[in-house]
Every structure is written in C-alpha cells, then in structure tokens.
Design goal:
Blueprint: H1 16-35, H2 60-69, E1 70-71, E2 79-80, H3 87-101, H4 110-132, E3 156-160, E4 163-166, H5 167-179, H6 184-187, H7 208-220, E5 226-229, E6 232-236, H8 238-241, H9 250-260, H10 263-268, E7 275-279
Parallel strand pairs: 6-7
Antiparallel strand pairs: 1-2, 3-4, 5-6
Helix pairs in contact: 2-3, 3-4, 4-5
C-alpha cells in the first residue's frame, strides 16, 4: 500500500496530532479488507437469463493460459508465473477478455452464466496483476476509488453489455446474490497465498458442480482453509469476512467444513463447537 506518511509531501516533520491522524488512517487502510468485506447486494440488471438457451461460451484461450502459467506447488498453493507471461500469452489473455465482453451474457442459461462470471473474475484478476507486476501483494495495486479503498476490487475493469464492471461487482453483486452458493468463494481467486487455488484450467458449465465441490474439498482440507490445533479450530478469514454465506455463525461454518472434510479433518472436528481464530496471507501467489 502507498506510504501515508507526510514525508512524501513535506520536508518538515508534521505536528504530532497530524502524524497521529495519518497513522490512524494508515491503520484503517490496512484493516479495511478484512473489516469491511462487501455484503452480497443484488444488481438486478444481471438476473436476466434464458433457461432455454443452448449457446456455450468458449473459454479455450483462458484454459490454455492457465495450463501454461499456473504451477502446482509442494505447499498445495498453486502459483502463477506472472514473470514468465510473454507478449503472446498476454495478447491471448486480452483477446479472451475482449471475446467475453462481446457475449450477450443475459441471453445465456444460468450454468453458462455462472461459469462465465467466475472465469471473467479470475482472468481480470490475473490481468490487473500483470498490469502492475511486480508487486508483493494485490493490495498494493491501489486503483480503487475512495479514500479508504485498497487494492483493485472497486475499479471498473471491463464493459459488459454497456455496463462498466469491477471485481466487486462480479463477486458481490452478481455471483454471490444470484446463486447463493458458498462454493463460489473457492472458485474466484484474489491472487493471494491465502486464497483458494486458481485452478490450472478454466471452469466449464458442463461440469461446474463437480469442479466447485473439488475446489471446496481442496481448500477446506488444506491448513490455510481449516486446521485444528490442540482442539482449537483456526480457519481462513474468508469464513469470518463472509460468514453470512457459511451459515451465519460458528456453527454454520463448522457444519460447512464438515460437509467437505476428508477423514483426517472430519475426525479433528469431532467435538469442536466454535472457531477460535482466523488468518489470511495476502502475499502474491507468485513462485
């Protein structure tokens, strides 16, 4: 994040009360992404769809990009080789986004729309990181409007059907409120180590439910998703920021974890009744 200290604007040290205010503002900026996670608020305009539509969206360019640049890592956290994206790959990514922007998404069937928005979100995230690479964290890409905004999530990044959209619009005004599917949190990727993995291939409507279930299992059973240490449950901050999507309280979060838990975690969760802590690593998901 940008240095809020007055030294960048004034040679003389600021008065103590000014420095104190600036320090408070800086603290708020650091805390904001976790303290003020957006609510799911429906953008009614995007509820239009055609249940009888048979058109499918070609995500081949995005799939090829992911297969080339997403790397499995021994830690279990997929990495994106941003530094290895050459001009040809970048042109392919830009073309894919132009192709999506030209699709009348409101005329698609619901499953195609869901895959469309998930892939669009992830492709835009990768592009915005590439636009500012190298960065240590996506939160350092301060292009969102507003004094207390951080990162790129509030910035308008693409036009779809004549509407300017950003990442927050896609996740919190379209995907979450329309589908009300907590598994969406495992599909959209915020380019961070603490985030659920960016898959090595595109999402497709034909097998979307199975893919979302696999993404949920992958994250829930990884230590950054949930872990029980000496009987105390620590979870990803995703379950705190978006608790309304996971049952609304600790009991709902734990029930969700149990639905996707593999035997080792399921056994560890026996007798666990509440969440004891959360954490999240905002470091960029680069090698």
């Amino acid at each position: 994040m940008n240095d809020p200290s007055p030294s960048r604007m004034h040679r003389r040290a600021a008065p103590r009360h000014v420095a104190g205010i600036l320090g408070l503002v800086g603290a708020l900026l650091v805390a904001l992404p976790s303290a003020a996670a957006p609510k799911a608020e429906l953008w009614e305009r995007w509820t239009a769809h055609d249940p009888a539509a048979t058109r499918t969206v070609d995500h081949g360019l995005w799939d090829a990009f992911l297969r080339t640049h997403v790397r499995a890592h021994p830690s279990g956290v997929n990495r994106v080789a941003y530094g290895e994206v050459d001009a040809r790959s970048r042109a392919s990514l830009d073309r894919y986004l132009r192709d999506l922007a030209a699709i009348p998404v409101s005329a698609l069937a619901r499953p195609e729309q869901k895959a469309f928005w998930i892939n669009l979100y992830n492709a835009l995230t990768v592009r915005v990181v590439l636009d500012h690479f190298p960065v240590a964290s996506i939160r350092d890409i301060d292009i969102s409007p507003g004094l207390f905004s951080s990162g790129p999530w509030g910035a308008k990044l693409i036009e779809i059907e004549g509407e300017q959209l950003g990442l927050d619009d896609i996740e919190h005004r379209i995907l979450r409120p329309i589908w009300r599917d907590a598994r969406v949190h495992y599909a959209v990727n915020c380019a961070s180590i603490g985030c659920p993995n960016l898959r090595g291939h595109a999402y497709a409507a034909a097998d979307l439910d199975a893919a979302l279930d696999a993404a949920a299992r992958d994250f829930v059973n990884h230590p950054r998703g949930a872990r029980v240490e000496r009987g105390r449950l620590r979870v990803s901050s995703i379950y705190v920021w978006f608790v309304e999507d996971f049952g609304g309280d600790d009991a709902g979060v734990i029930a969700h974890l149990r639905r996707h838990a593999e035997p080792a975690l399921a056994d560890a969760l026996v007798g666990v009744a509440h969440v004891d802590g959360d954490d999240y690593d905002w470091s960029l998901n680069a090698p």
